[in-house]
Amino acid sequence: MDLSAINPVLLIASLMVAATPILLAAIGELVVEKSGVLNLGVEGMMIIGAVSGFAIAVETSSPWLGFIASAAAGAVFSLLFVLLTQVAQANQVASGLALTLSGLGLSALLGQNYVGIRPPQMGKLDIPLLSDLPVVGPILFGHDPILYIGIALTAGVWAMLKFTRAGLVLRAVGENHDAAHALGYKVIRIRILAIMFGGACAGLGGAYISLIRVPQWTEGMTAGVGWIALALVVFASWKPWRALLGAYLFGGVTVVQLNLQAAGVAIPVEYLAMSPYVITIVVLVILSADKSSAPAALGRNFHASR
Amino acid sequence: MKLTTLLTSAAMALGLATAAVAADKTKVGFVYVGPVGDGGWTYEHDQGRKAVVAEFGDAVETVYVENVAEGPDAERVMTQMALEGADLIFTTSFGYMDPTINVAKKFPNVKFEHATGYKRADNVSTYSARFYEGRAVQGTIAGNMTESNIVGYIGSYPIPEVIRGINSAYIHAKKVNPDVQFKIVWAFTWFDPAKEADAAKVLIEQGADVILQHTDSTAPQAAAQAAGNVITFGQASDMSEYGPSPRVSSIIDNWAPYYVARTQAVMDGTWASTDTWDGIGAGMVGIGEISDAVPADVKEAALALKASLADGSYHAFTGPLNKQDGSVWLADGETSDDGTLAGMNFFVEGIEGDIPQ
User: Fold this and answer.
1) All structural domains of chain B with their residue ranges
2) Does B218 contact A at CB distance below 8 Å?
3) % of residues, chain A, pLDDT over 90
4) Which band of pLDDT confidence, cut at 50, 70 and 90, is reported for residue B117?
5) Which of A258, A260, A265, A270 best tests the B interface by mutation, with the highest count of B CBs <10 A?
6) In chain A, at which end, N or C, are there fewer CB atoms within 10 A of the end residue's CB?
């Protein structure tokens, strides 16, 4: 066993990278669920974002355009879910699953010509002085810009839900859509916007995997991250900062367990491999012991005539 | 992944239903563990399938299902293929071993071919390639090229196939560089680009400047490239898009001749259950071009080793070799028998860490 081989600074820096796709997708889904909609299509929207972001980045040689395209593609793809659940009043669980399945298939089709290609690299934030600081530099100031956007989004969503009128309206729609409707709020319109926001965030998260974390395109490369993000929203009791904590915890334990393996720590590998899931669940379950619960109208369709 | 499988198999059922009319054709099914676009293991199996189509044209019909999870799902996919009239089914991952045997019992007239396993029946053959010969060549290059003397190894599952590769690479790296040390990370997946990339990054952060992988995607290559000054080897497929560096060479699986021969045997009615295990000599294992990033003398040594493995004058597991616990495995000059290799469940002396049980 040689724990000295593990560099804690690099470890923290790489756990932040591992956590970002989960965080982005979870924040998007959190807003969707706060509006009372359960969209199980996160995985599908992520992989659509991953492939379209990758394709655009390769074609234009600009990772920024790739990320913008991935958010747009995620949002557009979520319109399929909007059409099914908000217009046609279909079951949300089934529609979300359909979104995931069709997203996986469609992305494989779209990505056929992009297998084995290298995407343009996104530069890391490099602030003179700050990035060169020991310890703090690599952890806080040495990442790609999207990672900071993820944290900023978390803060933004938190502030929006807690302090603004728009946040209050969104929560009202999610808690009791009939009451919100009676007050004159456009329930369907608000939900559509929330779903599209969720789609854009999931798309960004997917592109983060294909453009920065891996970076390359392969079929099915999100490999279940969307499902983890979905579970994280529930375990985080629909609170943005807890979602951030959960994502970092999950990403962190994932990276730590690989580090421990490589350092030759004598813990059976099977326990290490399952540890990210177990630790994340345990911590968030303990945290969710307070009274917070799911939005009351979660998963229920709304129609003005009822 | 299960959902993807459901979707693909549903799509396949649809495809089969429309094509079930052509009864006189020989129908060959393939079950894949990853997507055909993985750029590695499954990609090469699909190249083999395409070779069968190219060889026999209209006389054969091939079907394949991708992303089939190892376990009960695999049994369902195989059963469906057999029910739809397949004459020969290739199951191309170690974890399909028991499902293949189970389904074969129910369909005595359908021939099955299981890759990398060791259970056979009257209508089940096994076939594999001696990848460890390729690992010996990689180990030689790795031992010569490493400057930190740390070689990172991304293992998939702790099965004999993978353990053989680790042992073979280690033995030959050690031979040219007595100070070499292997750091092994088990990913417990054949295909998960994000996880493979993480594993590669961790190994690089801990000082490895050579990465060997026994997983199927090209993600570790990309991670090594981003890190710079790290070399890698293509796994299962050439992965030449990452050459000349980080990818300095590769092991290429060449299934095409075997798939064509076995399909021919079914057509001729001469198919019999066998166990095929071919290496560099027979062409089932290819060594991808060694790039210019490798010094000329190292390249020469690697090619000499390849030649001696190919003509059989040298066996990759030649004594004196001890097991990890120090007990004698092979005496001086003794070579390992295939039975021991097929069931290999121990590291050789010098490798640190335990094999997960």
Assistant:
1) 2-129, 132-253+287-342
2) yes
3) 55
4) confident
5) A258
6) C
